[in-house]
UniProtKB/TrEMBL annotation:
<dbReference type="Pfam" id="PF12833">
    <property type="entry name" value="HTH_18"/>
</dbReference>
<protein>
    <submittedName>
        <fullName>Transcriptional regulator GlxA family with amidase domain</fullName>
    </submittedName>
</protein>
<feature type="domain" description="HTH araC/xylS-type">
    <location>
        <begin position="228"/>
        <end position="326"/>
    </location>
</feature>
<dbReference type="InterPro" id="IPR009057">
    <property type="entry name" value="Homeodomain-like_sf"/>
</dbReference>
<keyword id="KW-0805">Transcription regulation</keyword>
<keyword id="KW-0804">Transcription</keyword>
<dbReference type="InterPro" id="IPR018060">
    <property type="entry name" value="HTH_AraC"/>
</dbReference>
<dbReference type="InterPro" id="IPR029062">
    <property type="entry name" value="Class_I_gatase-like"/>
</dbReference>
<dbReference type="InterPro" id="IPR018062">
    <property type="entry name" value="HTH_AraC-typ_CS"/>
</dbReference>
<keyword id="KW-0238">DNA-binding</keyword>
Length: 334
């Protein structure tokens, strides 16, 4: 039985494009006993969310069909002893090319290296897949199928993925991002940044930044409800031009009293807090999206890429581009 799912390219997809006929994208997730359930669940959730969002725009039509696959089909046990139901790899029809094939590892993946039927199927599926993404022991399985470091992986890391995600031009085993990020990249290429970004907010924890600790103080028990409400309002409206008097009205205080109370309870002025909100938003967009710096500056309420660069140099000691590069590198290394 198939696990059917009704689920960031920098181009937003127009309503006309969403409504135009588009073939269903087949997403395959190959599992082995002992697989990591959170990784598989994250992939499924991305495409389920995309189906739910895009289905609304397409009058109920969904863009993805997700199938859990295993060598023989039937129950597959995760590393946490949770069982899922899978289809046999042989149910995949040659005409149904995979939009993306995820080869998820598992403790029993090494035993699969002796399964010639599985290895033969992987070779054929690889050639019929737009994107092949191995994780964990799945890399070893693909290597056994002949797709090691020396193999030119033309189905992995080309076109959109190469330019947007800086994926390698060859070698499926050199993986620059997680299964979750790979799934989001597929959705981004197909449905646009807006939908992919919304899904990322649902399924991925927000990126930690240098400003997270400052902003999290607004939830502290030592901060009064009125100041908490004003801080939350600043966070919710930081992407647009605002004046501090509006936040004072939220707190039901005069502007003078509000400025004094906010500084005492939060440790920073409302203007500084608003700036940290915007810088935090900019940092997260740099880490989690491939949007250009100018667009990030506008979306964060900062205005221009030049002003954002000045603020980054002042508060972080590097340019937005340098910040993005360093954070992505640290994420890949973790």
């Amino acid at each position: 039985m198939a696990c059917s799912a009704e689920v960031h390219s920098d181009k937003a997809v127009s309503p006309e494009a969403l409504l135009s006929p588009r073939p269903v994208g087949h997403i395959g997730i190959v599992l082995f006993d002992g697989f990591a359930l959170p990784e598989a669940a994250a992939i499924i959730e991305v495409f389920q969310s995309a189906n739910a969002l895009a289905g609304i725009e397409r009058s109920g039509r969904t863009p993805y069909d997700v199938g859990l696959l295993s060598a023989s089909g039937g129950r597959v046990a995760s590393s946490s002893s949770v069982f899922v139901w899978s289809e046999s790899i042989e149910t995949f029809r040659p005409a149904d090319n995979f939009r993306a094939l995820f080869v998820v590892g598992g403790t029993e993946a090494h035993n699969a290296l002796r399964d010639e039927r599985l290895i033969t199927w992987l070779r054929l599926a690889y050639l019929r897949s737009e994107l092949v993404f191995p994780t964990g022991e799945g890399r070893v399985v693909l290597e056994a199928a002949g797709f090691g470091q020396s193999f030119s992986a033309r189905h992995y890391g080309e076109s959109h993925y190469q330019t947007v995600r800086n994926a390698p031009a060859a070698g499926v085993l050199t993986v620059p991002f997680s299964p979750l990020q790979a799934a989001l990249s597929v959705v981004e290429a197909d449905l646009g940044t807006a939908i992919a970004g919304q899904i990322a907010g649902w399924v991925a924890p927000p990126a930690e930044t240098q400003f997270t600790a400052i902003l999290s103080k607004s939830a502290s028990a030592s901060v009064s409800e009125k100041i908490q409400a004003a801080a939350r309002w600043l966070e919710a409206n930081g992407d647009r031009p605002i004046v501090i008097d509006e936040a004072a009205q939220v707190a039901a205080m005069s502007e003078r009293n509000f400025l004094r109370r906010f500084k005492i309870e939060m440790g920073v002025t409302p203007s500084d807090y608003l700036l940290y909100v915007r810088l935090n938003m900019s940092c997260r967009l740099l880490i989690e999206t491939s949007l250009p710096v100018d667009k990030i500056a506008r979306r964060s309420g900062i205005g221009s890429g030049g002003r954002l660069s000045k603020l980054f140099r002042k508060y972080l000691g590097k340019t937005p581009t340098e910040y993005r590069s360093s954070k992505r590198h640290s994420r890949m290394s973790s």
